[in-house]
UniProtKB/TrEMBL annotation:
<feature type="transmembrane region" description="Helical">
    <location>
        <begin position="201"/>
        <end position="224"/>
    </location>
</feature>
<feature type="transmembrane region" description="Helical">
    <location>
        <begin position="94"/>
        <end position="116"/>
    </location>
</feature>
<feature type="domain" description="ABC transmembrane type-1">
    <location>
        <begin position="90"/>
        <end position="292"/>
    </location>
</feature>
<keyword id="KW-1003">Cell membrane</keyword>
<feature type="transmembrane region" description="Helical">
    <location>
        <begin position="274"/>
        <end position="297"/>
    </location>
</feature>
<keyword id="KW-1133">Transmembrane helix</keyword>
<dbReference type="Pfam" id="PF00528">
    <property type="entry name" value="BPD_transp_1"/>
</dbReference>
<keyword id="KW-0812">Transmembrane</keyword>
<protein>
    <submittedName>
        <fullName>Carbohydrate ABC transporter permease</fullName>
    </submittedName>
</protein>
<keyword id="KW-0813">Transport</keyword>
<feature type="transmembrane region" description="Helical">
    <location>
        <begin position="244"/>
        <end position="262"/>
    </location>
</feature>
<keyword id="KW-0472">Membrane</keyword>
<dbReference type="InterPro" id="IPR000515">
    <property type="entry name" value="MetI-like"/>
</dbReference>
<feature type="transmembrane region" description="Helical">
    <location>
        <begin position="159"/>
        <end position="180"/>
    </location>
</feature>
<feature type="transmembrane region" description="Helical">
    <location>
        <begin position="125"/>
        <end position="147"/>
    </location>
</feature>
<dbReference type="InterPro" id="IPR035906">
    <property type="entry name" value="MetI-like_sf"/>
</dbReference>
<comment type="similarity">
    <text>Belongs to the binding-protein-dependent transport system permease family.</text>
</comment>
């Protein structure tokens, strides 16, 4: 009798735990689904907007599909804007982002490795200054950066965007954390005993092991520079030097459909054309994320466990 009662009580506790677990999992799924819908609906609207005319975009259901012919029409209108200057903006965005990224990778990985593997004088001060630089809003540095760039007569040039964009303290600190926690000390000591120099240690051991870190810094650095608006807006004055975000802002400000204050215009640029330009800005980041997601996950998790 006692054994039967105990089994009955244990079964009741298991059913109670199962019920609570099912309720908790359902609640988590509902919350995650809500966040997914909240994030996906604007992206879906952006993808569908170029398929409709301006009248359809205003009158039809926000998530309705128009036609692929309208996408081609919007594209022809977009490339007709100022004799196809959008191609130049695209080239400029690639140039500015790639140039800044090369300098960022070269400086961040080397600086993080040096801070993690050596005990140089002032190391703690450098790390504190790196943390302070991380929390300073980038927009707060634009004016002093403009004054510096103007002092060396580099404003309205590619270097006025590339050089400030290469300043990436987050990459330095990320590399420091990665090399401090994930680099096998025994392997490095063995290589030193075999006569390997510090350059050989970095090039043959540390750098091959840091592929996830390089992928992580490359992705975040590229996204930050590709989406950069305020710095190029301040540094560049000629339309041919704009990157895509600043160029898109110029298109919007010159479109009566989105800026009625400028009055009538013969430009065939309306909301679908602007939405298509937005898709062009977002598309490279989505492609790079799909190509680098394996390195991103490994890079994010690599520093979480100390070996």
């Amino acid at each position: 009798m006692t054994t039967a009662s105990a089994e009955h009580a244990a079964g009741r506790r298991r059913r109670s735990r199962s019920k609570r677990w099912t309720l908790g999992r359902t609640l988590r799924c509902v919350i995650l689904l809500g966040f997914a819908v909240y994030c996906l609906i604007p992206l879906l609207w952006l993808l569908l907007a170029p398929t409709k005319t301006d009248a359809q975009l205003v009158g039809d259901h926000p998530l309705s599909f128009g036609s692929l012919d309208q996408v081609a029409t919007a594209w022809h209108h977009l490339i007709a804007y100022d004799s196809g200057v959008i191609y130049q903006w695209l080239v400029n965005s690639v140039l500015y982002s790639a140039g800044s990224l090369v300098i960022t990778l070269a400086t961040s990985v080397l600086a993080g490795y040096a801070l993690a593997t050596t005990r140089v004088r002032g190391r703690r001060l450098i790390l504190v200054l790196t943390l302070i630089a991380m929390i300073v809003p980038p927009t707060a540095l634009v004016l002093p950066l403009f004054l510096e760039i103007n002092a060396v007569h580099l404003t309205n040039t590619a270097m006025s965007v590339i050089l400030p964009g290469a300043f990436y303290p987050f990459g330095v600190y990320l590399a420091f954390i990665y090399f401090s926690t994930s680099l096998p000390r025994e392997l490095m000591e063995s290589a030193r005993l075999d006569g390997a120099t510090e350059i050989r240690l970095f090039w043959s051991i540390a750098l091959p092991l840091a592929k996830p870190l390089v992928g992580l810094i490359a992705f975040f650095g590229f996204v930050a520079n590709w989406n950069n608006y305020f710095l190029p807006y301040v540094m560049l004055s000629e339309q041919e030097m704009f990157n895509l975000p600043v160029g898109l802002g110029a298109v919007i400000s010159g479109t009566p459909a989105l800026n009625p204050a400028i009055g009538g215009s013969q430009l065939p640029i309306t909301r679908p054309e602007v939405a298509l330009a937005g898709v062009i800005v977002v598309l490279p980041i989505a492609v790079i994320f799909l190509l680098c997601q394996r390195y991103l996950v490994r890079g994010i998790l690599a520093g979480s466990v100390k070996s």
